[in-house]
């Protein structure tokens, strides 16, 4: 039986005076990979930020494993096993790759050990003593995701992790997502790169103007390509 890990009901969110989300409804089951699709400005990143309490005012309901987190501070949401990887990555330039990796606190049991992370990301082991500024874009992205895996988070919110990276790195990130899914992680992907996201996701939500306009499963992908062309230009 599938277990609902994340549920969002009638979510509205603002940045100052700007009303960005207009009644978002979505669910994510434990162990699923779900992708939010849409053009820039559709509200996908704001949805991720709203889940962890990093927007302005919010209204509606956000439940993680049945607990409403709308009024919780971001650090308390994180302690429920939520890891957010923002588009800007947030690598500390003056710290080595390994120091960056060890920086976040452990928030829940079951986080990956350093050895497990280095097995998954051999590049990071090779660059363990390199400062953050010396890492390539792909290495920085791997490090940003790896930092979350060490904390024990089981619900991963990944924002545009493939953006601007070489195809060989994008392929490695796709393999990483499939490996994490096989380990039982639950992943919400915001992606502009449809070719990257399409084979990975169990289900897709399409956003436009701060609302969900369509949702469908992997089996319905082909029959929805015309609609995606219209919304995304893919």
Please provide a written account of the structure.
It is a single chain. With 234 residues, the protein is an alpha/beta fold. The protein has one domain: Rossmann fold (3-Layer(aba) Sandwich), CATH 3.40.50. It has 9 helices and 10 strands. The protein has helices spanning 44-51, 74-78, 97-102, 114-120, 122-126, 137-151, 167-182, 194-197, 225-232, and strands spanning 4-15, 18-29, 33-37, 58-64, 67-68, 82-85, 155-159, 186-190, 203-208, 211-217. The strands form 2 sheets. A 6-stranded mixed β-sheet has the order 6-7-8-3-9-10, with helices on both faces.
Question: Layout of SSEs?
Answer:
Blueprint: E1 4-15, E2 18-29, E3 33-37, H1 44-51, E4 58-64, E5 67-68, H2 74-78, E6 82-85, H3 97-102, H4 114-120, H5 122-126, H6 137-151, E7 155-159, H7 167-182, E8 186-190, H8 194-197, E9 203-208, E10 211-217, H9 225-232
Parallel strand pairs: 3-8, 3-9, 6-7, 7-8
Antiparallel strand pairs: 1-2, 1-4, 4-5, 9-10
Secondary structure: helix percent: 25-40%
Named CATH architecture? 3-Layer(aba) Sandwich
Average pLDDT rating: 93
Structural class: alpha/beta
Number of helices: 9
Features:
single chain; 234 residues; Rossmann fold; 6-stranded mixed sheet; 4-stranded antiparallel sheet; 9 helices; 32% helix
Quick summary:
By secondary structure, the chain is of the alpha/beta class. The chain has helices spanning 44-51, 74-78, 97-102, 114-120, 122-126, 137-151, 167-182, 194-197, 225-232; strands at 4-15, 18-29, 33-37, 58-64, 67-68, 82-85, 155-159, 186-190, 203-208, 211-217.
